[in-house]
Amino acid sequence: MQKRDILIVGQGLAGSLLALELEKRGKNVMILDNNPIVSSSKVAAGLYNPITGRKMAKTWLADELFPNLSKYYQDLEKKMNTRFHFSKTIYRPFNNIEEQNDWSLRTMELGYAPYIKSTSSHSIEVDQLLDPLGGFFVNNSGMVDVATLVSACKKYFKAQDSYIEWSVPSEALEMEEEKIKLGSFVANQIIFCEGPMAAINPLWSDLKFRLVKGEILDGSCSLTIDHVVSKGIFMLPYKNYLRVGSTYDNHNQNEEPTEKGSRELLNRLSKLYSGNLKVLKHQAGLRPATFDRRPFVGFHHKHKNVAIFNGFGSKGVSLIPYFAMSLADHICFGKKMPLEVNPLR
User: Domains in the chain, please, with CATH?
Assistant: First the structure.
């Protein structure tokens, strides 16, 4: 039997960053991953944005997450010797005069200044961009090429003899009071970072997952812009194409792109951009979201050496580093975890 401190099931963004944080703290980990052809990590646009939603409010934990987020990914780029992080300003056009006025009041609220770069009460005059009422620019925002990051991490873990490709059958897991047995491995603990698959894992049948399907389009167009535009959908200029997304479908629980999704995205795009998008690629993925939009991070209520690290939804790029450090500190140093993410809530 191969002995490891911790087994990690799943090597998406969550499993990768958690494994790295545990490794930093001296833990000997092994990642077991089924290497799916399609996954939310491989499809994700990777945007992070401190001001979100229709109410244009600071996102949950913004002051804890965003001040060091860029540096976190920049340091990881150096470790992996791979470029996948890009600081990008996000431009959010106003929908109407009321929203413009509401935002003027919002900018005076305590704690918003670090996240506001500038505000315009008129169009920023980008050809074919539909923003007659202006909008505001967000600081501390950007994107992570999640697929490239995950690929670089896999290469790293393989070199460390910390990765095997294996679709873990739940019935193969033997849980004892002091150890875990799985295949040829014995470990002190196991952590499930398996994305949407957790929703059908018998161990987590009590958890209220709300899987959300998202579709995105990659295409070419004549729009010349460096920053991200976000209003109902996002327009993300990256490499030589424009990425447009995303849909939010709570009912269609598969990973197949649909004609309906494409029409919805192109219709929303037409309200923001007057030009044409030549669609080059259409992708879909399932986000592992939860009933209250808070992740599940912590240990099983019966099996004290079995944990879950999942449910980050569309905000994984900003949430996962913070909670990977939190869970690693909990495991290694006994630091308390926030009750808001307790799987038993």
Answer: 2-43+147-206+293-341 (3.50.50.60), 76-143+210-287 (3.30.9.10)
Among 130, 119, 166, smallest CA distance to 270 is for 130
Length reported for the chain: 345
The pair of structure tokens assigned to 151 is: 């690929």
R_g over Cα of the chain: 21
3-state secondary structure of 70: helix
pTM value? 0.95
Angstrom distance (rounded) from CA 334 to CA 187: 19
> Three-state SS for 107?
coil
Summarize pLDDT for 240-293 with one digit per residue, the tens. Answer: 899 999 999 998 888 999 999 999 999 999 999 999 999 999 999 999 999 999
d(CA 100, CA 104): 6
Contact 15, 309 (CB under 8 A): yes
The dihedral region occupied by 195, where left means phi > 0, alpha psi between -120 and 50, and beta the remainder, is left
Per-residue pLDDT reduced to its tens digit, 29-44: 999 999 876 666 778 8
Calpha distance 16→269 (Å, rounded) = 33
CB atoms within 10 A of CB 200: 11
Q: Tokens standing for 280?
A: 């080059």
Pairing state of beta strands 116-120 and 135-138?
A: antiparallel
Which pLDDT tens digit goes with each residue over 50-65? 999 888 999 999 999 9
Q: Which two tokens stand for residue 310?
A: 């999942």
At 236, list the tokens: 């993300």
Cβ-based neighbours of 234, under 8 Å, separated by 6 or more: 45, 47, 228, 243, 244, 245, 246
Burial code (b: 16+ CB inside 10 Å, e: under 16) for 77-110 equals beebebebbeebebbbbbeeeebbeebeebeeee
Crossing angle, helix 13-24 and helix 316-333, to 10 degrees? 40
- Are the beta carbons of 238 and 143 closer than 8 angstroms? yes
196 neighbors 310 (Cβ within 8 angstroms): no
